[in-house]
What we know:
This is histidine kinase. By secondary structure, this protein is an alpha+beta fold. The protein is built from six helices and five strands; from the N terminus they run H-E-H-E-E-H-H-H-E-E-H. A five-stranded mixed sheet has the order 1-2-3-5-4, covered by helices on one side. It binds adenosine-5'-triphosphate (ATP) and magnesium ion.
Amino acid sequence: DLKELLEEVMEELEHKASKRDMHIKFEVQPDKHYLTNGDRQKIYRVCQNLIFNAMKYNQNGGEVQVVLKTHKNTIQVDVTDDGPGIPPEDLKRIFERFYRVEKSRNKKEGGTGLGLAIVKHILEGHKSKISVSSTVGKGSIFSFSLPLVKSDSMEDKHKAATL
Ligand code: ATP
Ligand code: MG
């Protein structure tokens, strides 16, 4: 359940966020289910890397938004920040191992430059891919999709509850 998984990730990072006066906003439809197939631990790692990056490179007081939505047969996860953004010339390289944008290298925040390479690798293993759109001075959006698994028992429960 991607909703439950994301809630866990946000709970884990909440302490770090509040220390920097940041908000993580979660946008999700409450009565929907977001079941997918995959390696839970690995998908957890993907979400943790993306949300942690969105916080790490943002200024204090910044906002991170996590949006979960379904399309026909897929669930989409968007992680949006209103941080510094990534210059176009760096954008195509951030998924390479050890690549860090020059500015981040000079900042005090540590990092090895492996996070996004791992994200890409894990999603490839799930027949998915990571996409990014970024504007310098405005922020970034990282997105990926996984298959939506229909749960008959859940739909039945829902029907029973609304009858
Ligand atoms: P690690 O994740 O291994 O601790 P890292 O965060 O530097 O280190 P990646 O997560 O792979 O490595 O990110 C690569 C680079 O992309 C970062 O160094 C940073 O320059 C840039 N980057 C990633 N996410 C963002 C973001 N949300 N906003 C701005 N820059 C980002
Ligand atoms: Mg990282």
